[in-house]
Amino acid sequence: MVYESYDINFTQGTSKVHRFHTKDGNTPIFLIHGYFEDGRIFFTKKGKGFAPFLAENGFDVFVCDLLGKGESTPKIKKEFNHSQFEIITRDIPTYLAFVRKTTGIDKIHLGAHSWGGVVAIAYLSRTQDPNIKSMIAFSTKRRIAIKGWRKFIGVDLIWDKYGTYLTKKHGYLPAKKMKMGTENEPAAYYKDANIWVKGKKWISPEDGYNYQQELANVKLPPILYITGKGDKLLGHPKDVKRLLEETGKHQTNTLQIVGKENGFKNDYDHINLLTHKDAPKDHFPFVLDYLKQFE
Predict the structure, then answer these.
(1) To which H or E segment does residue 265 belong?
(2) So what's the pLDDT on residue 32?
(3) Among 200, 224, 221, which residue's Cα sits nearest to residue 140?
(4) How far apart (Å, rounded) are the C-alpha atoms in residues 134 and 196?
(5) CATH number for position 226
(6) Dihedral through CA 232, CA 255, CA 271, CA 180, nearest 10?
(7) Which parts of 199-270 fold into alpha helices (H)?
(8) Residue 172: inside a domain
(9) Treating both helix axes as pointing N-terminal to C-terminal, what angle do 92-103 and 115-127 enclose, rounded to 10 degrees?
(10) In a domain, 281, yes or no
(11) Helices first, then strands: H and E counts in the chain
């Protein structure tokens, strides 16, 4: 397996793109990480994780570090302005154009973890990209609507109230310092994501694009929504299912909950659904079989 990395320049800085492939690598797949993290949710430099797994099984895998995160430069600070709207309308199209130019292949797969799936679906809603073969959405929800103490503490208090306070104080969300995640977040990105996490309506604050209305009329590629039985908050099966339904009953969607009651080894949570040592032999083959349907 070959590892390579590339730099893509944007107005705010340089984004790192990681590539895993073999000499026999075929169809490309582009992976987008979620909130408070970087591309390492999909790989380790020792060749472990979902991205190397796919590469070893014949895919040409590209993983981005969104601006300010991972090996991208510069790091997020007060003056760093990067919005969710830019990710959806500028960054994702740029990444996909790079993958297509680098490989010479137009038809590719898309994959994402957590909030990365939300911005990816938003991109697909706006563009109806005809060259996306399928999409894998790990632990992806748009709105956290479950009830209980975990939601009250984790979302209402820490994410919303405390996150808003920290963002106003520092000019960005210092998630690393506050042990909220492994990467900080720009103020503009946090503000927009917070609106969608809390609200029933799915509307762009920038241009009024109504995703709920538009998704009722557009055709998305087949999407596999996969989440862990042990994900109690950030990718709770009920909220993942809610997003699946929000994208429209006419879409070719599949929901898979990964847990012992469904024949898997573990009740995976939000993170170890991708990082657990059992994943490559447990549910990664299920995802691989799903992708191969569209080859």
Answers:
(1) none
(2) 98
(3) 224
(4) 24
(5) 3.40.50.1820
(6) -60
(7) 211-215, 237-246
(8) no
(9) 80
(10) yes
(11) 11, 10
Which residue range is the domain that position 133 belongs to? 2-145+200-292
What pLDDT digit, counting tens, does each position of 43-64 carry? 998 999 999 999 999 999 999 9
Total domains, the chain: 1
- Residue at 169 is within a domain: no
pLDDT at residue 24 tops 90:
no
- Nearest-angstrom CA–CA distance, 95 and 98: 5
Q: What is the mean pLDDT of residues 85-105?
A: 98
Chain segment 225-236, per-residue pLDDT in tens:
999 999 999 999
Within-domain flag for 158? no
Lookup: tokens for 82 = 């990067």
Q: What are phi and psi of 262, to 5 degrees?
A: -105, 15
Which token pair is 61? 């895998």
241 secondary structure, DSSP code: H
CB within 8 Å of 59: residues ≥ 6 apart: 21, 25, 26, 27, 28, 29, 109, 291
Instruction: Tokens for 184, please give them.
Output: 């900080």
Question: Of all helices (H) and strands (E), which one includes residue 225?
Answer: strand 223-228
At 179, the pLDDT band (50, 70, 90 cuts) reads confident
Q: How far apart are CA 261 and CA 266, in angstroms?
A: 9
Q: pTM above 0.90?
A: yes
Specify which residues 257 forms β-bridges with.
Answer: 227
